[in-house]
Amino acid sequence: MSKTRFKSQVAVIFMVGLVLSGCSIKLAYNNVDRLIRWGISDYVDLNADQKERLNVEIKRIHYWHRVNHLPLYAEFTKGLAVTLTDSVSVDEVQALFDHITGWVDEMEGEITPVVINMMISLTDEQIAALPAKLEKSNVEIAEPELDAELADAQALWAKEVRQSLRPFVGRLNREQKAYIERRALGYEPERVLWAEYRRRFQNALLSLLETRSDRTKFELGYRELIAKRETFYGPELDRIYKVNQRLNLETGIRVLSMLTERQSAKFSEELVELSEDFAELAAEADDLASPSST
Questions:
Q1: If we measure between CA atoms, which residue out of 227, 4, 228 comes closest to residue 102?
Q2: How many domains does the chain have?
Q3: 154-207 pLDDT per residue, tens
Q4: Helices 48-68 + 261-283 axis angle, to 10
Q5: Which of 21, 195, 278, 292 has its CA 20 to 30 A from that of 63?
Q6: Is residue 224 part of a domain?
Q7: Could you give the CA distance from residue 79 to residue 96 in angstroms, rounded to a whole number?
Q8: Residue pair 243/153 in contact by the 8 Å Cβ criterion
Q9: 159 lies in which domain range?
Q10: How far apart are CA 249 and CA 257, in angstroms?
């Protein structure tokens, strides 16, 4: 599994997650600092000094992202309605995802120094609590498919596909649902393998954290670890991910080609609205002071 495919998946999951969260994109984006802090608190109980430094960095990165990325998202999303319904191929959709990974690379470049500083600041007590908290997350990821029958895992995949499409196209008709059910037979369970990959990566990270008193050594080690994270996937996850990724793309493209006139209109409207939301969020930067200038 390439790092590019991993990053494109992360980007798409993030975008879809915002849509499925029940919040408007603008509400979610304007509160992303709070969401990040909540996410971090699942793993580390930060002290007052760490919280203060993190808040400063989140504010800076949030402003940077609003100014540098949201206008690109707005323009990109505006053209998706035509691109994704105009006899698009799997390779063309994959090219769209690969385009998104360029933005993810830029975000990673901004975020990595912050992560390094935060990890170096962790106390022995905070690190001692990490394994249990990480494992709790791993168990939650694996749980839906752990000891599950193949048919149940495939049914869950079909349900998630339907749920991901509904915000954009509305209720699916019988033919579309039947097609998704047929394609579900090609899904191979992967959640347990994802949890196992995470455990291997986390063990390497926990070992690296023992070197954090030597900043240079830790920073070099962390950057190397991130750069080679695909080596922790293992051949089985790599194979299954490729199979399921192809399945996801083919299924999504086929369902989009089956849209009714009413569904197509909703799809276009939703993407235009999403584009407008991105543009409005980007414009709000004019009313905000750049954190670097304060």
A1: 4
A2: 1
A3: 999 999 999 999 988 999 999 999 999 999 999 999 999 999 999 999 999 999
A4: 120
A5: 21
A6: yes
A7: 11
A8: no
A9: 3-285
A10: 12
